[in-house]
Amino acid sequence: MGHPIPYKSNLDTRLLKFSGGDYFTIRDAVTGVQIFGGTGSGKTSGSGRALAQAYLRAGFGGIVLCAKPGEADLWRKLAKECGRAKDLVFFDDSGGLRFNFLDYAQHTIAAGGKDMNLVQLLSTVAEASRAQSGGGGGNEETYFRDAANQLVANAIPFLRIANGSIRLKDLHAFINSSPRTREEARSDAWRNDSYCGRTMMRVYQRGKAGDMQAARVFEEHRRYWLDESSSLGDKTRGSIISTLTSSIYPFLSGQLHDLFCTDTNILPEYARQGVIIVLDLPARSHGVAGVVAQQIFKLAFQLCMEAEHVSDKTRPVMIWADECQFFMNSHDTDHLSVCRQQRVANVFITQDMPTYQAKIGNEKEAESLLNKFGTRIFHATTDYNTSKYAADIIGRIRHYTLSESQSRGASSSGGDSLGETAGSGTGSYGVSLTSQQSKSSYLEYDIQPDYFAKQLRTGGKPNNHKVDGIVIRNGMKFKSSGNNRIKAEFSQL
Known about the structure:
Blueprint: E1 14-17, E2 23-25, H1 26-29, E3 33-36, H2 43-57, E4 61-65, H3 71-81, E5 88-91, H4 101-107, H5 115-133, H6 139-163, H7 168-176, H8 182-185, H9 188-193, H10 195-208, H11 212-228, H12 234-248, H13 254-260, E6 276-279, H14 283-307, E7 317-322, H15 332-342, E8 344-350, H16 353-360, H17 363-370, E9 375-378, H18 384-394, E10 396-417, E11 424-445, H19 451-454, E12 466-473, E13 485-491
Parallel strand pairs: 3-8, 3-9, 4-6, 4-7, 5-6, 7-8
Antiparallel strand pairs: 1-2, 9-12, 10-11, 12-13
Helix pairs in contact: 4-5, 5-6, 5-12, 5-14, 6-7, 6-10, 6-11, 6-12, 7-10, 10-11, 14-15
């Protein structure tokens, strides 16, 4: 960037004011925010807008993931309002910005032999492709996914030693030309004519010439290609290779190849200088390719931020994901566990719990991810699962009832005698009244689930452009409410 961008680094810096003297600080921001709300609830234009403006004014850098075509224009407007218009750059299909993710990874997050970070990047490509094409998560698919990762993990060391760098085209050629049988693996024709065989022989020869790293790679990984992979049946082997190549194939040519496999002029590290990288490849207009492209940059960004040394002077950065279901991956849970100390403020926005569960696969894993967010904001929703989830994490309170019972009793007695003179008689009558009180208690939701469908304003003219949200914090009490939640008002203007 051509100009210094001022920023706030003190974690106690106040970013937003809620009701009753409660504040949202940078410390809260870097523990993550998850926002829920139905269509038209004001989640993006209410709390989303308020947080975005607060982060911009505090000098945050970061990345913005785009699900909808209008997302980039929204951020242009927000940045202009906050005096940050010059700090935005747009990674789009024009090709003006490019990011060779494999080359970047080799020199940063995978440097020093950390090849598993490269495997994780490529696995994320496959994961995003499967998610958008409706791939399931059954045992069979899990097997093929894990086996495809094993292919990559055993190919990368050979390519790194033989070529000095790793390109997707080389990875594709190496795996496709790997031996199909053990007999082929031992043949001179395969060693001399296949790309895989020639690459492995170059590494072997370097090891024989005294290159200790080459000798170690050949010794550790040759058995996989010569024995394990080559002994698989044709159908199984074909399915494993197809699982991998189908996901990387779009990057071998065309637009994705130009953007992610040529040169690099944008880096995740720029965010620490205050740059906001808008990934303007909207999922709803660019389809699977747009999602996969943004997933690649997001994971590279996460791994980069996690590897950095930070201090109390480090600039906070953000990962902004509206319609976050398009961009969630298996690394998010681990990332959210460390984002506080790495000063990364994640904001995920989506409609409801079923969306999370459909993306992640089951309710428990979805809740495990959600529990990593320090702040959750719930806007109006008619989805009962989401409302009940909100009511459950707010908790229940004990109510007491006092009951009284009374009993009445009556008694009488009497007698008479008859003598020679005159008769005489005696008698008595009594009434007793007793009263008993008993106290009982029961637990009830502090906020009933149906509250989220009936009592929260959704903005627009009828509500004077005010949006209500229930803000919940993990393990902390708000001053104004004395518990973990408050009702906050957000303006759309």
